[in-house]
Amino acid sequence: MLSRQPARRRCYKLIADSDGYDRPTTNNQRLAAAMPFACIFVPDFPAEAIVRTEPELRLQAMAVLEGKPPLQKVFALNEKACRAGIEPGMTKLQVEACTDLVLRSRSLLQEAAAHATLLDCAQSFSPRVEDTGCDTLLLDLAGLESLFGPLPKIACEMARLASDLGLEANVAVASNADTAMVAARGFSGVTVIPAGEEADRLGGLPLDVLFGGLSDPDHKDGAERLLETLHRWGVRNLRSLAALPEIAISERLGQEGVCLQQLARGATSRTLVPFDPPLVFQEAVELEYPLVLLEPLAFLLQRMLNQLCARLAARALAAQELRLKLELENGWQSEDGEIKTFSAALNPELPSGRSAWTGEGTRPHTARGLFQRTLRLPVPMLDAKVFLKLLQLDLKAHPPGAPILKIHLSAEPARPRNSQNGLFLPASPEPEKLELTLARISGIVGEDRVGSLELLDTHRPEAFRMQHFAPSGLKHDWEGHDFSRADKPFTFVVPSGLQPARDLLFRLFSQPGKQCLDPDQRSGNLQPGSPSQETGNSSGAVTALRIFRPPLHTTVTLRDGKPKHIVCSKREKVQGKIIWLAGPWRSSGDWWEQEGWARDEWDIALQSEPGIALYRLVHDLLSGCWFIEGTYD
Amino acid sequence: MSSSSLVCAHGPLGSSFAFVPQVGPEALFKRLSEVPKLAGVTPASRLESRAAPETISSGILEIDNLIGGLPRGCLTEVCGPACSGRTSLLLAAIAAATQRQEVCALVDTNDTFDPHSAAAADVDLKRLLWVRCCDSSWRGQGFNRADKASLKTRALVPQERRNNKAEGAVEQALRVTDLLLQSGGFGLIAIDLGDVPIKTARRIPLTSWFRFRRAVEHTPTVLLVISQQSCAHTCASLLLRLEGEKLSALSYQRSVNAHFGNALDSIVRVSRAEEVFANPGTSACEVPNHAQLLQGLSIRAEVLGSRLERKPVKSDRAAFKTKMFWAG
Q1: Distance, C-alpha A378 to centroid of its chain
Q2: Minimum CA–CA partner of A573 in chain B
Q3: What is this model's ipTM?
Q4: Which of A231, A507, B90, B283 is the most buried if burial means most Cβ atoms within 10 Å?
């Protein structure tokens, strides 16, 4: 097995030697002339992937175990654990003696999410990214100096962004890709190697850095044999390897040895293989113990949402849709073999630490269920707090119903919305706030009881459909107007408070065929003391109907086929002699379907205490019942 | 006490209950200014008056002339009995607001909103957030579905429990209104308490109305409350009362017989009925029902209270008419 790489500092550190920052001009010119490359390398990647989801572990000694119990062995560890004497390959029993050590199982899901994060970080700088390994990425930095500044600044920004995304990475910039990769594996923090100084800068590194990133066991064995050979020769670092005669190495180690020497000299040259990752933003967490309450779930969701939003922000994108997928335990198998199911797990009302299921099981049942929720947002958003609150409200309304084993959270990317509205448009609710408000209102009145409505194309009474309320998606009157057309005059409304802009617009648009109206004539705003005579419309008020839901069942006395007297047991006021009526207005429809309807409508007047009350009386021709459908008000 | 400008007035039983100025108010202010603790205090009567709030059209010219429009950042209450035009005024205000491209919200306490009436009143339905608060067991979307099971179950619900349901709906409406006001950005938020029993509406705590008034203050939102009787009390900046024409059944019938063509304001009518009346041998009672149409309502509006700076222009009463909308 390969020995560990040289000790590195976890925190970001810039190697501020004289070659990096202090002489940027000449070195940058030399680097730029030589097509610079950058490498992002995350040391101890499996441990870092777990620390990314649990940032509090960064301050503790932590080891990652792999294998099936009880044969678990240490697979990766952070620097604190290394200092505590833990080494890869130790068994779980051995490392459990260390009391301050935190043990975690290896999670491929979290490693995949961390790798996707690393790709997002790299893609936010350069479109040409090579996916060299799960912990290593190579970037082509050619032409980026005019966009992001000098190369050391780019390298620092890369390290900072990776740190913001939860990964402490080494970044190295060099004139060729392999040198950048070797430097990133050998030096912690940010390293900038000018062209021509590769051999000098890499010379002090141990030979291990040449064999990093090998995952194939055969290759590992070959690398170990080669490393052992070089050690026997007394070669301890890259400078010693680079100083060996090339022909002698070729004779003894073959082309593999020559390639290693070229790497040690920093003299390799190869073409980058760009990788175009799909735009998939997904985070996943595999839980060691099933989650039963919503409160701890919210903490995990918050972390995942923060990471998702950071990844989306790195790509200058926003989320249009959030998909939450929970893998649940459907049941437990008791010792007697009986499978018991849960009654009301994840009940938000339960106090913490209290079990929510009724069956007492001993080991998990193999059958697992999936629970999925999708939040479709009216506009692209990028606010983790809003997302978390929306998810909390949604989960409160639709609890999963069983303990949670895995959490998958993905976002559908979209371009961020243009938040700047028109200068002359009235204010409207902020989409983020409105979504939260709608979610809270849905929790109060019900999901189908809030929104905007859409009338259906039918004469059936009460034919409408509730929709999600999204005023931000509406187009305004001026949108889509072809201002270039001169044949049709258009009007332009300017608020009264913007007199200079108003005058300017008047001068701009005071051309034949165009006119500028006073805003008060159009907007309907009334100044105190001078109510506009053009805004109100005395004949515009429509007699509104107030619908009784459900309609009031009524007993009607007929005379000559006309209603003469009604009695409504539900409302005392709605009864008595009909003093006036108009009708019937007969309508029917959908008779070719099961839910056909046919009815006669009457407008009736009853004497009431304050005066005359007007109602709409309906005779359902199919059932023969009479109803008061509403009142005119 | 003899040299003081304040004297202690005595009640009928000889107990003192107030200090009243003996001389004019100027002497009182001078006397108060001599007291060191009260030197920097400005009497309430001399406070600077607030700037008049911006008003917007209610959609009805007569109402705008009467009250100067609906004030932004204030609570406006419109009360009146059934069939008094409250909902017509509400729809007109919402229509005017949505036509100004403002976003409106309607908190429908009793789930009585009629979408077809709103569409006829030119309400932009996509800009209207409709919150149906009624906690009714009937959740059907069609008329025919209501007549069987839901009505039976509703009939089994005792009156007391129904009142509790009404209170639950009012509580929902208050919570929803609170959320909407906190959200901000709405041009008009309307609370429809029109069918809430008066007893229940009066039980709404005054603190809720105070909170609403404070929340809507300094915002461009118009908070409009529709109710049977005033329930916001002093929290309402403007209190408007609507009522229909008071026609008794007898006079109404007489007016039908005598002046079918032109006399009735409140209800009615016409169309082909005039042709029937042109025949001297035909009486009004023989007019077929389908020849009569309900044309609209005649509404009287009266300002009962206003805390705005601007007083009504001409009078505190106005009248307007509504018109029916026809399908097709």
Answers
A1: 14
A2: B82
A3: 0.72
A4: B90
